[in-house]
Amino acid sequence: MAAISGKIVQHVLVAQCCQQDRQLSTQFGKDCCTPYRHTLLPYLRGKLAWNGISTMQYRTFSKFNRGIVYCNAAPSATILPSVEKGAFLKLQNGSDIRGVAVDGVEGEPVNLTEPVTEAIAAAFAAWLLDRKKSDASRRLSVSIGHDSRISAQKLQDAVSRGLAGAGVDVIQYGLATTPAMFNSTLTESKNFLCPVDGSIMITASHLPYNRNGFKFFTNAGGLGKVDIKDILERAADIYKSFTDEGLRDTERRAANSVKRVDYMTVYTSDLVEAVRKAAGHIEKPLEGFHIVVDAGNGAGGFFAGKVLEPLGAVTSGSQFLEPDGLFPNHIPNPEDKEAMKAITRAVLDNKADLGIIFDTDVDRSAAVDSSGRELNRNRLIALMSAIVLEEHPGTTIVTDSVTSDGLTAFIENKLGGRHHRFKRGYKNVIDEAIRLNSVGEESHLAIETSGHGALKENHWLDDGAYLMVKLLNKLASAKASGVGAGSKVLTDLVDGLEEPGVAVELRLKIDQNHEDLKGGSFREYGEAVLQHLMNVIDSDPKLQKAPVNYEGVRVSGYGGWFLLRLSLHDPVLPLNIEAPSSEDAVKLGLNVLSAVKEFAALDTSALNKFVLQ
């Protein structure tokens, strides 16, 4: 046996029975393997929870099986590698967990394995039990959903085992959205086993196919950075305690405690009802509208058939609605230029009134009007601000740090609201809006240029589908009142938004192996760069620092502005520049370059190229 540090555990060797399994599946709808087979959900209390299984297959299966079906292949020994606490902590991505779940990409070894996942799930259960302090008469329940990634099923099974092993009831939703998972902690429905005590969404947003991760919720909202660190520390300790007998026990527990519910039915019906209510309880308030959806092969394909069509809209021309975890058409990301080109083409080719695009797990979205004008980034924020300020005059709009000066003028001078520009990170923006309300400053909208948008009326959940419902509400109510039809009613709301002639984001990477770091961290080095830039700006009368700023160094000059900040997670200093012309943008870039050129570990090649254009 190879000298690998780790523990010996037993597992079911599925390879030897794959051919037999295929034959049995074809003949009887029967799988000879244990829940380690990733196409099979656990066999639950006499019912087979299997994606895509037909009623006929289930009936045939049930004649032959009344319990857990184990593989008849001989057990085989394998190694459960040692994973140090530091490796667990590296999986943290702000208020999420993200890692590599699929092998095959050079330089990206798998670190989100099934045993690691099982430990993380068990750690969440322990964290939840500590906070809920439930009495012994009631077991806690946790819902699990996933997006379309190819690793979703195996991670869902591993999460189920980890939760069940910790004594928690598990409810699987299958393909779902991040907003729906949070909603499941709020919904009151015995038929749908709601509300649950906690919820886990298996997703890595718009990242490549080989990545995956987790988002966690309670009825108080998404967990924060401190909670995620706590869970990962617990997971590291749990992982070390894994034994062969313990892992087998979690399989048995999962078989007895996992249920499956179609919760997306509840979630979509709530969205439909919200639009009908806004239009005066008309059954089909979107009748006559042609709206196309681009789901990017993520989890948002439901929106066309389950939301828009029941409301009366025509959805022909909608694209990439089928879940495909390889994302073959474009990155499911409303910030991505190719993705926005794809939905724009669909709108123009189909002569649609509106186009809607989602990211993979539907917590972000954007739109395109009938003329092909993109309603994302600053325009989407301006549009949502106009809608919210009609409903709540004078309210504060909280955004991330890279929003434009033109947006501030639009919100404050035209709409009569207040623009509170905060930090990057959707959780930062949402938490700041909640904080402002707690100290007496009314805020009803927290929104990022990325397309994350959360409203107070929707429990501060960043829900891309709900954001689009707010646009649909405007369309439906305008039509019902005879004000207008088509997307012009939306486009008119952002009339007067001043937009820059040039807007770029450049990424200045920090070489963590460079001797200039002198053994320090990239964060310390980045902070030194920012402090030096700030000192230089103070001595230049042509440049003015932003009077209120919460992140990095934001400076106005030459009719535009720039912001240099340190990335939340990576050894990178993103530089955003907006200006009326290329010439003015280059002047701003040259000022930054002059200030940071002495920092040898900082890769300024992208900035050099920009100023030499």
From TrEMBL:
Originating organism: Penstemon smallii
Pfam families in UniProt: PGM_PMM_I, PGM_PMM_II, PGM_PMM_III
Essential cofactor(s): Mg(2+)
Family stated for the protein in its record: Belongs to the phosphohexose mutase family.
Name of the protein in question: phosphoglucomutase (alpha-D-glucose-1,6-bisphosphate-dependent)
Keyword annotations from UniProtKB, A to Z: Carbohydrate metabolism, Glucose metabolism, Isomerase, Magnesium, Metal-binding, Phosphoprotein
Top-rank EC class of the record's enzyme: isomerase
Alpha-D-phosphohexomutase alpha/beta/alpha domain residues: 95-234, 271-372, 377-479
Molecular function as annotated in GO: metal ion binding; phosphoglucomutase activity
GO terms under biological process: glucose metabolic process
Highest taxon of the lineage: Eukaryota
Catalytic reaction annotation: O-phospho-L-seryl-[protein] + alpha-D-glucose 1-phosphate = alpha-D-glucose 1,6-bisphosphate + L-seryl-[protein]; alpha-D-glucose 1,6-bisphosphate + L-seryl-[protein] = O-phospho-L-seryl-[protein] + alpha-D-glucose 6-phosphate; alpha-D-glucose 1-phosphate = alpha-D-glucose 6-phosphate
